[in-house]
Amino acid sequence: MSWNWKKASVIGTLSLASVLTLTACTSGGSKDAKERDGKTIVVSVDEGYADYIKSIKGEFEKENKVTVKVKKEGMMDTLDKLSTDGPTGASPDVFLAPYDRVGGLGSEGQIAEVTLGNSKEFDDTVKKLVTIDGKTYGAPDVIETLVTYYNKDLVTDAPKTFTELEALQKDPKFAFASEPGKSVGFLAKWTDFYYGYGLIAGYDGYVFGDKGTKPSDLGLGNDGTVEELNYAKQWYGTWP
């Protein structure tokens, strides 16, 4: 395998997974809307986040003299119903949404503009992901990154470069017994773009130019991306 200094890092980059958004104001004609007295805020989250929201809502309720009602609902289920529930007031007041849905929801008027009270806690890159035409439509909530897992019983220190990973792949102790010539020293799911983009970026590949803001400039076919695909192909040739 050929070596390229650009792909020295094993760990991927940070990405914003989801944001807390505020439903745009509506006239409220549904039963749910009529039952609210203006002092109740409905927060919709996946079941896995419910206990956390319940644990912190008390202080917010005291400071703002409101009642926070936690609704357990899948994030995508909430989004699927937003266009119909929003106008009638049946939608939650606050909910989670993938950051890549913020632009469409904001431009369609389905979510409200917000002010980040803790703006200093986020870097400019993350804030740009929830900002459209100078308006902020969500609070960054979940930030993810890619990590490398390794077995300490088999590998003394975590690999830091692809050169080290290539050496592991050639180590006989990681040979895949049922398929001669194959190895499991290092495995990755690069067929999923979420996991594969770090490798593409390492070769100066990109999706849209000018830091993702110029859709007319596509970088997935440039020389760097082609080189990256050939490199990844070599890895797939060594995997079972």
TrEMBL record:
Task: List the residue ranges forming a coiled coil, or say none.
Answer: none
GO annotation, biological process: maltodextrin transmembrane transport; maltose transport
Q: Which family does it belong to?
A: Belongs to the bacterial solute-binding protein 1 family.
Per its UniProt record, what PANTHER family does this chain match? MALTOSE-BINDING PERIPLASMIC PROTEIN, MALTOSE_MALTODEXTRIN-BINDING PERIPLASMIC PROTEIN
Kindly state which keywords UniProt assigns to this record, in alphabetical order. Signal, Transport
Q: Which GO terms describe its molecular function?
A: maltose binding
Q: Name one GO cellular component term.
A: ATP-binding cassette (ABC) transporter complex, substrate-binding subunit-containing
Q: Which species is the source of this protein?
A: Streptococcus dysgalactiae subsp. dysgalactiae
Could you say which residues form the signal peptide?
1-24
| PROSITE patterns named in the record | PROKAR_LIPOPROTEIN
As recorded in Swiss-Prot or TrEMBL, the protein's gene is named malX_3
Q: What is this protein called?
A: Maltose/maltodextrin-binding protein
